[in-house]
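stuck on this chain:
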Amino acid sequence: MTISRRRFLEGAAVAPVLLGTPLAFAAGETLPNFTIAVADLPATLEPARELSNVGTRVTYSIFDTLIRRDFLGAPDGGGSELKPHLATKWERVSPQELVVTLRQGVKFHNGDELTSEDVAYTFREGRLWGDKPQIPGGRPYFGILAGVEPIDRYSVRFRTKVADVLLEQRLASWCAWIVNKRAYEAMGFEAYSRKPVATGPYRVVSHSAADATVLEGFDDYFMGRPTAKRVTFKRVPELAARVAGLVAGDYDLITNVPPDQTGVIAGYKDIDVRSVVLANVHVLAFNEQDKVLADKRVRQALCYAIDRQKLVDTLWQGTARVPASHNFPEYGQMFVEGRKLPYDPAKARALLKDAGYKGEPIVYRTQANYYTNALEAGQILIEQWKAVGINASLQVVENSTQLRGPGVQIFNWSNSTRLPDPLGAIWVAWGPAGEAQVSKFWTSAEAFNKAGRAMEAEVDPAKRKALFTEMLDIWEDEAPATILYQPSEAYAIKKSIGWRPTTFYFMDLRPDNLSFAKA
C-alpha cells in the first residue's frame, strides 16, 4: 500500500451502516445514470473472445445466454440452479442430443428478432469449436459439440461428440452468450468486437479500453425496461482515486476494494461494502520451458514453500479461503474429501537439494493492479521462497502480454469454476485446449489429458469422481502451477442502490438485480 493511499483511506470517519430497501423507478420516470469505477477494462467486447475477469464484468449485461444460472438464488451469490432465459425449455432427446426451444419475441439491439439461426450461428463450427476456431478460447467449453442445427424458427438441436452431462450448464456459462448473425456478418469480427449487437439489457454506446465503456438501457429488453438510463464503466486504476470519486459522488459503485480498507470505506454514512468469496482461485503458473523450472522437483519446492494461510490472514483478514486443491465443495458429489494444499519448508529444501538447484535466479512476474492484493502477495511469496533457499525476485509488468512474454518463469493467473464441476475448472484451464498447454507452459500433461478426456465421456458419477481424483493427483505431482487462495471480492456502493454481487466477476445489472431509491 502506498503512503498516500493509506493516509487518504484512514482519514475516513468510521460509523455503523444500515442497508435500506431501494425502490425501482416506475415507467415514464426519468431513470438515473449509473457509473462504476473499475481497476481495468477489457480490450474487446466480443464475449467469447474476451474471457477475462474484467471483460465478463462488462459484457454480462450486454449479452444473454439461452439458459440462466441463478447465482443469486443462493445466499452466498453462488447458486447453480438453472432457469429459462432466452430459451423457455430444453429437452434431452438422447444422451448426445439436446433440443432447445427459444423465447419468442426477443429483440436484439438492432431490432432483429432472436431466432434459431442466431443460435446456430453463435455455436457454429469454426467459431467456438472445430480444428481451427475463430475464437480458440471457446474450445474448452464447446469443443464437445458435434453440431448445432435449427429445427424451425424457434427451436435448435445441439449434438455432442460424447454423452455430455454438462451441456445445459455450458449453455448457461462462458462463451455461450448469443450473438446477432446479421450484425456479425455485416460488421465483421473486429468491428463487432468493438460494438457488438446482442439482446442484453444494455447496448454499447462506446468503448475505449484506456478510458471507459458506455452503455445505454435497451427499452425493448425482454425481462423489462432496464433501471438505469446509462451505465458507464470508468477505468480508474488507483484505489484511492476510486474511493475519492465514490465519496464525491462521481461514481456510484467501485470494484476491487481490498479487505484492509472495507471497514474504513464503509464508515461513510451513505456507502455500503458488499463482499463475496469468489468461485475463483489465484494461482501461480510455472513455465516448464524454462531450464530451471523444467525439473518438477523445483516446481514442487516452490509449492511446498508457500504458507497460504499466512497470505490469507495477512492480506485478506481471513476473508479469503485456502481451498482443498483445485477441488471445490460446489462440485457436490464430485468434491474429493480429505485433500489439502501442502506447506512444508523442510520438504521444499530437500526437493531443491535433490534437484541439484544451485541458486539460479527465479523471477516472479505480476501486474500491480489487475488482481486485488497481487503486488502485496508477490512480496510475501518472494520472502517465503528465499527462506527455503530459492534465489527469487519480483518483476512488476504493465500488461498480460508482458506477463507471459519471453523469458517468463512464474506468473500469476486466476482459474474460475465456470461450471459447477471439475470439467468447468481444472479441465478448462489446464486441459489440452486451455491456455497453459496451448502456450506450451505445461508440456508434461499426457496422463492428465487421458484422464480428462475419459471424464468428459463418462456419465457414471463414481467413475467420474475417480477420474477427477486421478487428474488432481497428476496435476499436484507435475506441479505446472499452484493455488494460492480463493479470494474475496468487495464492492463499495451507494447505500441507496439495490444490487447484489455474485461469486463470479459477472456484474448483473438486469432489472431484477439493480434498483435505485427515489430521491
